[in-house]
Amino acid sequence: MNNINKKFCQFSSNYLNNLYSSFNENIFIKVEKLALHLRKVWEEGKNIYICGNGGSGANAIHLANDLHYGAGACGNTPIVKGLKVEALTANSAVLTCLGNDIGYDMIFSHQLINKASEGDLLIALSGSGNSQNIINALETAKGIGMYSYAILGYSGGKSLSLANCPIHFQINDMQIAEDTQLIVGHLCMQWLSKNKPF
């Protein structure tokens, strides 16, 4: 192994160690709470909305797919209906319309006002926890009577105190913060696929 390979292996090892060490018992308790809540919402036929910006916005779409299809229909015969879930980042026409006409800070909250109902669930994904559209979404969800989770990095920002249940990874690395979002989602998806309410 040459020096370049050794350096990259060490770099990779450090990255993965930082990711792994971000998880602890308190995190797992909250992830289990989210998984159980998702199962309850699934059973009751309520809706789940997921939002985020940038990489977190892409993760919202990824996790909406996993919960809609992977947790229910994937590999099952007969097909079990998946969770009723929508990524608020998925419709570019809606996002650009709202961003242009009423402001980027309202792109998620305006959708919740139109779509969500009491008892629905919001999952907000944010590295910093300080994006205004995430803050507005959490505040709007509270006003509607939704329960909110926020998967956060860094200090957790303002979202830390706004979410009903923050899942806070104290890591000062945006890529690892975004990795944790997918890992939490995948943990929930695989648990739900083995613990369906139907």
Quick summary:
The chain is an alpha/beta fold and about 200 residues long. Helix content is about 55%, strand content about 15%.
Can you tell me about this structure?
The protein has 198 residues and is an alpha/beta fold. The chain has a single domain (24-194), classed as Glucose-6-phosphate isomerase like protein, domain 1 (Rossmann fold, 3-Layer(aba) Sandwich). Helices cover 56% and strands 13% of the residues. It contains eight helices and five strands. It has helices at residues 3-21, 25-44, 55-70, 92-101, 109-115, 132-144, 159-162, 174-194, and strands at 47-51, 84-87, 121-126, 147-152, 165-168. The protein has a five-stranded parallel beta sheet with strand order 2-1-3-4-5, with helices on both faces. Helix 7 links the parallel strand 4 and strand 5. Helix 5 (109-115) runs parallel beside helix 6 (132-144).
What is the total domain count? Answer: 1
What is the assigned CATH homologous superfamily? Glucose-6-phosphate isomerase like protein, domain 1
Query: What CATH architecture would you give?
Result: 3-Layer(aba) Sandwich
Number of strands: 5
Radius of gyration: 17 Å
Q: Under the CATH scheme, which class?
A: Alpha Beta
Q: List the uncertain runs.
A: none
Straight-line N-to-C gap: 52 Å
